[in-house]
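User: Could you go from structure to sequence for me? I need the amino acid at each position, not a summary. Structure tokens:
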């Protein structure tokens, strides 16, 4: 593949390079794309030094080439509503697909629900059902802080959700548009220190004039880009573009949503289900399957593939209040109150959460170079 084309499609593409199939042309810049009014001369740099590393972590994104599954099916005398397969943006989409799943739940006559899974998706689903009058018990083999949702960085943005071959599927696109718009509005209810959700500016770095990647162009109003021309920004790439987005600090956010769930009468049971048959023993006749990658074994969904992602966590720097992504190199930096997150990697089909030292070295050296060359 010719390199200029590779750069062009991946520059703003949230490290989806490892997942990309055939190339799709990027959408043209939209009316939301505006020129910078003011250049940014300098920004506080992340201090990328060995003695600031807290830990290295890895997690498995529950990726399906055709995107998330929200659908109802019958299991013996029970109704199962699936809500899983959110790839690299399950925290982002959680309230959106929870709303879609809750709509299916309301169409049944049942009002007692078992939610299987206690990550971002299970929790949002459980809370929306409670708000709609359901009695809910969450069953999960692992609770926060031990879910994939805790590993998530987590920035609000659709990324690594479907492969290129599914970009033209009208139903898939409409479902994503619905879910991301609902979630974007819903997450605004949580902005503040209590839930650890806050706005910051995300910079997309590249050497070609920035354009909206497909994932953003389908809901461009959520990502109003400001373009910085060469010389108008402090990053070591020719161009930068930025948009305001929400950071969801899962360390705060997930326990707070659990607390809301318990306060509203929800019950939490730690339980592992070895297969779908084990679910038939549950007292509830409505089962919400929010097991993320767990749905691969539990329901035999062979389309689910783990996409390993690795992060290096540095000591926090309160003065760093922006994020950046160099999609061409799959390098991103997200600031949180407890840490500076350095990513990333996308390893499709890799099924272990043990951090890889070589990848950690690439992440560290890449960010060190960006910081050293920043103004
Ligand atoms: C490095 C990395 C960075 C990421 N960055 C972002 C980001 O910036 N923004 C974003 O939105 N997303 C991000 N993601 C993706 C996000 O983490 C996932 O999409 C999301 O966590 C999926 O949520 P979930 O609730 O479906 O699954 P999980 O969080 O995995 O929760 C699944 C739940 O189901 C339970 N379960 C599974 N199987 C069973 C079983 N058999 N019996 C009982 N319980 C079971 C688990 O114990 C757990 O409680 C990132 C992921 C990684 C790895």
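Assistant: Here is the amino acid at each position, in order:
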């Amino acid at each position: 593949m010719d390199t200029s084309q590779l750069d062009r499609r991946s520059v703003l593409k949230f490290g989806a390079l490892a997942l990309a199939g055939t190339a799709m042309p990027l959408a043209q810049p939209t009316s939301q794309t505006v020129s910078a009014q003011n250049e940014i001369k300098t920004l506080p740099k992340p201090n990328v030094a060995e003695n600031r590393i807290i830990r290295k972590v890895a997690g498995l994104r529950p990726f399906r080439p055709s995107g998330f599954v929200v659908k109802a099916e019958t299991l013996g005398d029970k109704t199962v509503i699936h809500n899983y397969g959110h790839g690299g943006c399950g925290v982002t989409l959680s309230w959106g697909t929870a709303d879609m799943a809750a709509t299916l739940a309301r169409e049944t006559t049942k009002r007692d629900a078992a939610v299987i899974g206690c990550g971002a998706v299970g929790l949002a689903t459980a809370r929306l059902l409670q708000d709609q009058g359901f009695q809910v018990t969450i069953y999960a083999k692992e609770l926060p802080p031990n879910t994939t949702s805790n590993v998530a960085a987590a920035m609000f943005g659709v990324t690594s959700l479907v492969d290129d071959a599914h970009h033209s599927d009208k139903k898939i696109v409409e479902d994503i548009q619905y879910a991301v718009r609902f979630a974007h509005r819903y997450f605004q209810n949580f902005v503040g220190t209590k839930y650890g959700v806050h706005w910051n500016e995300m910079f997309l770095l590249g050497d070609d004039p920035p354009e909206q990647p497909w994932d953003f162009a389908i809901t461009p109003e959520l990502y109003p880009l400001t373009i910085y021309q060469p010389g108008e920004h402090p990053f070591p790439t020719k161009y930068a573009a930025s948009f305001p987005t929400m950071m969801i600090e899962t360390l705060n956010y997930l326990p707070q949503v659990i607390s809301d769930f318990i306060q509203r009468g929800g019950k939490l049971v730690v339980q592992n289900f070895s297969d779908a048959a084990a679910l038939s023993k549950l007292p509830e006749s409505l089962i919400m399957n929010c097991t993320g990658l767990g749905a691969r074994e539990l329901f035999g969904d062979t389309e689910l593939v783990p996409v390993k992602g690795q992060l290096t966590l540095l000591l926090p720097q309160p003065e760093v209040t922006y994020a950046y992504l160099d999609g061409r190199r799959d390098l991103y930096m997200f600031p949180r109150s407890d840490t500076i997150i350095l990513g990333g990697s996308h390893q499709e089909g890799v099924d272990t959460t043990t951090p890889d030292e070589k990848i950690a070295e690439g992440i560290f050296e890449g960010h060190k170079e960006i910081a050293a060359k920043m103004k």
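One structural detail worth keeping in mind: The longest helix spans residues 170-187.
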